[in-house]
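[job 4471] stage=fold_predict status=RUNNING
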Amino acid sequence: MSRIPASGAMTWNDIQNSFGGSNPVAITEYYTGGSFVTPSDLNSDIPTSGQIEAGDFRGADGFSGTTGSFPAGSTGGKSPEFGWDDNRSLGSNLGTAISTGQGIKCNFTKMYTGIGFVVYASLMTSPCTVTTTNLQARLISGSGANTWSAQQAGSGAQAGTVDATSAFGGGTNTVAQYALAPLTGGAISSGSTYNFTIS
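[job 4471] inference complete, writing structure tokens
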């Protein structure tokens, strides 16, 4: 990630470095939902139209990085799930707009584990480039209190399905959801912040 500072010095280059674009910088390129800015909790102060100014970008984050992070929560119960899910208020989002190793622009709404599996989902709204199939067979690598990885299965229940109920970014969005990826090398637990990359 290349998050814009929440306070202190900030330049137009910080905005460009986080979200992309070319010189000369035109601030109107950076409306939410446009070519560079994806809806997210971190970008909630950036308008979709009308007046826009540099201060709207304090603490915002774009696709320039390949690593995301989230503080993990737990559902509790006999079969708990651990991680982050915006729709269920499981954990929370620190910065999950990333580019994968294949250059796919993702903005994740969930990433959580159960017993031996991972569920994850990304917005498909512009400027994300996720589809219902292009994250299949990508390797997720995570670190935090421990390291873990998951290879997305090419098929299976929920793999590549569309979930239109996420409230991520303050509204209903269409997301591509993947599940049933075998989990190896560790697990996610509550109370720790985890970093992740996708091949």
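[job 4471] summary: The mean pLDDT is 81.
[job 4471] exit 0
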